[in-house]
Description:
The chain is mainly alpha-helical. 52% of the residues lie in helices and 8% in strands. The chain has one domain. Strands 1-2 form a two-stranded antiparallel sheet. It contains six helices and two strands. The longest helix is centred in the middle third of the chain and has 20 residues, at 36-55. Helix 1 (6-21) runs antiparallel to helix 2 (36-55).
Amino acid sequence: MNYAGRGSRILGQFADGLIAVLPLFFLIFVPNDSGPVAGIIAVACLGWMFFHLMLADGMEGGQSFGKRVAGTRVVHAETGKPCTFGQSFIRNFLLALLGPIDWVFIFGDKRQRLGDMAAGTVVLTAD
């Protein structure tokens, strides 16, 4: 297996973070007196953030938008099948819970974060 490099993993994570928060900038343009419209837009933005940060690795080919940019993909460590939405949630929930502590583990042989170990996934370079 061709494990993704640490730099490309960090690039993918950074790109996913930007993509997740980008809709929040639309809230700047919503007037304070717009009533329920502002609430609906805020809920939609938060829904997008949750989906993208927690579940996007389960998209086609195990590639979130950020992983496509970085040229990486998430797969099941044993079967090589693309990451599922359930695996994506496990790996990213632990990242949200542990933060930088989770990233320390990418210096191991398989470059797996704790979230990857829990979900049974690895990050590879995209073919």
